[in-house]
Amino acid sequence: MSDLDPIDPRTALELYLEDKKGTLSRSSIKSHRYRISTFVDWLDDRGITNLNDLTGRLIKEYQLDGRKASDWAPSTEKSMLDTTRVFVRWCESIEAVDSGLSERVQSPTLTGDEGVRDQQLDAETAQEVLKNLDRFHYCSRAHVTLAVMWYTMARCGAVRSLDLADYDADKQSLRFTHRPETGTPLKNKHTSERYVAIPESLADLLDDWIELKRPDVTDEYGRDPLITTTNGRIAKGTIAGYAYKYTQPCRYNRRCPLGRNPETCESTEHAKVSSCPESVSPHPFRRGSITHWLRSDVPTQIVSDRADVSEGVIDKHYDERTDQEKMEQRREYLDNV
């Protein structure tokens, strides 16, 4: 603790929010302010005026108090603790708290009816995963696959269904088409067909993939897949393997929250990447992306059309926003009327 720089919790919160303005939407900033302010107020009530004194035990007491005194619903508790973890991790970067403290923030895993929205990949983690791929595995098949999945909110089957001709470089868009007769059906058949605009960064990545890395092969039906292996069209199992592998914290964050040694951990073996308790399957990419766009003030109807999922299903299975976040977003809309 002697190497830490003293800072009071509220000053750290303001610095954190200022730092995040370049990467988070205005609504996400508001959500983070609300959640972390709750934590900072709790610390203030207990006389914690220096974040250097923050411990895993204090964070656990905060979690238990929130559950008991504030009557947090399980999904609310998860959202509050997930954001607290992000804040604590940021505090590590400015030497305000002990290194590794964020790994002791235990966010609950939802099950049963509480777990309709169980796992998701939050925007901050997704950015770390993609940044790691961009830096160390640029334009690899894994990089392209996971980037397309995150930015389009598409299901695995939709990602693998894409052909070269479905990518329009000039319009920076992707076209999803139901082609069951040649092995790539879409979940909701023809109603799943849609055009999706993509950001310039993804378009640049796809351009480089096509020009530099894409194996020039056709699939068994003579089609030209956008994402290929040396054997043809990418398989769903390969997509799942990429998700499990590159969401392992030891790969994108260079440390394991469970204290395992990556050199000896069997979860880092190719055939066992899905056994890592901290990594996620492809579906949380979709869930996390949907929640990210909702928190970025994109109307539910637009997210529904882009992700090929009904508004009702979004509300039940995907929307991780708390009631407080929804209220603040409604307030912003009303203030502009």
TrEMBL record:
GO terms for biological process: DNA integration; DNA recombination. Keywords: DNA integration, DNA recombination, DNA-binding. The keyword Disulfide bond does not apply. Residues 7-92 form the Core-binding (CB) domain. PANTHER family: INTEGRASE_RECOMBINASE PROTEIN MJ0367-RELATED, PHAGE INTEGRASE-RELATED. It comes from Halobellus clavatus. It comes from the Archaea. Residues 116-331 form the Tyr recombinase domain. Residues 318-337 are annotated as: Disordered. GO terms for molecular function: DNA binding. Signal peptide: none annotated. Gene3D superfamilies: 1.10.150.130, Intergrase catalytic core. InterPro entries: CB, DNA_brk_join_enz, Integrase-like_cat_sf, Integrase_catalytic, Integrase_recombinase_N, Tyrosine_recombinase_XerCD. This is Site-specific recombinase XerD.
